[in-house]
């Protein structure tokens, strides 16, 4: 089914739209703060909120830019009618006819273009029960959760109460109360803080989760609760997401780890002024597995792509040694997938339900690596946390610790690590107490450790302790037959992640990719595919690193992928409306004469 939306933007209807907006001015003014509050809860997750009058005419709209762009293409703008008569939206019909909140998702919509969206709608009623407005929250189906409709209902209720009282000061009080009621009703723990970590708002659930009393928590800093809280701030400032990451929390109860999601709170000038943190219980299967500066073991052997015979034998060998207690040393050039193999080995072992803790030995300052690996007691040194700190080895108990870039480990720490491997015990800084550990140790390096041993940079005894089960990953240039599989895999993965069309790779260009040397291995291939998907053009020449230390500029040419996509889109629309050119032109948002010119230009076959 195609889409037709009645919009009050032609000349004859402009006066009518102006009349509707003027008539609804007070309603819009009272509802706007609540729309903003509702949107702030989902900001950055591809949602938009609509405020409609009782006839379904859009009065106000707010949302993330990318989904608003899609909505505008479907004429979902101020002045458009969102009722069932205009666009067939079942959510609106049920709200208007039954006067109850409703959620319509995916194919429940009668419009094909909305199948990827979920619409949560709630009526706004006067004190007599008459519907005079509707609040809607629309987003991609995969981003909607069980609380979304409840948040819309609470927002609608808040608007109703505010309009009933009709006083600005009282409106602010109700807004704060409704906001508190909202976060208190959510099963997750919620707290907000400023950029210094001062806690400003908490809900009842987070108090129960952590075991502190309410006043005590309000006097705390977030850094007292979360290790490396500054990393969250850095991620958000870089416009990166921080979604569902497992982190250790300093609680009073017998719970060490929670799944944490962080959202930015923006000021009027769109600068980050605070953070909202959401804490959820861990899934049962991952009690202690955390993404503390590393990540969970998410890769398995069935996700490792390769048809090369030697590579397949390497995978079989890795599977055989997965349950061994012996240490594994994974070597190979940068970008060959050493941590992916380590994660797959962990997930194939009996320790798969335990934690997988990855430590980049080259990224931790020399002065901190001992405390990072083994932890410390409170007061062990100047600046030490009052309650001490748990080290990575202790966190990894019952699972695997992966020591990446082991060749960068300082000599004094090499001695400590050797003792841990031999005696299976650690002791924290500032403590004489030995702690038994049950940890599988894997290490990796892109260095030739034998040469490092000969040069006196790496201990010979530690090398032999680590190299009990060696695993040498081949460079991509030795796996030419795997390149086409990897290209197709990353094309699907990256285009889906970026919400862009895949770009066709010709046989000629695929042969070029197969014959390229790939000094950056799989990581470089992934970056090249991401560049192609983003630019929607094909690279003719990759970096030529043999001729010069400076990278030559990429020679791009306009491929026919965009033209092909336009032809495909026009053909699909014409077929969808069974050759009705007037309707097809409306859907494509072009003049009918322009549509005929494109049909002639591209020689598009039209089915009658």
UniProtKB/TrEMBL annotation:
Alphabetical list of CDD domains matching this protein: AAA, PAS
Domain PAS: 175-217
Pfam families registered for this protein in UniProt: AAA_lid_14 (PF25601), HTH_8 (PF02954), PAS (PF00989), Sigma54_activat (PF00158)
Domain Sigma-54 factor interaction: residue ranges: 304-534
InterPro entries: AAA+_ATPase (IPR003593), AAA_lid_NorR (IPR058031), HTH_Fis (IPR002197), PAS (IPR000014), PAS_fold (IPR013767), Sigma_54_int (IPR002078), Sigma_54_int_dom_ATP-bd_1 (IPR025662), Sigma_54_int_dom_CS (IPR025944)
Domain of life assignment: Bacteria
Keyword entries, A-Z: ATP-binding, Nucleotide-binding, Transcription, Transcription regulation
NCBIfam families recorded: sensory_box (TIGR00229)
Name by which UniProt lists this protein: Sigma 54-interacting transcriptional regulator
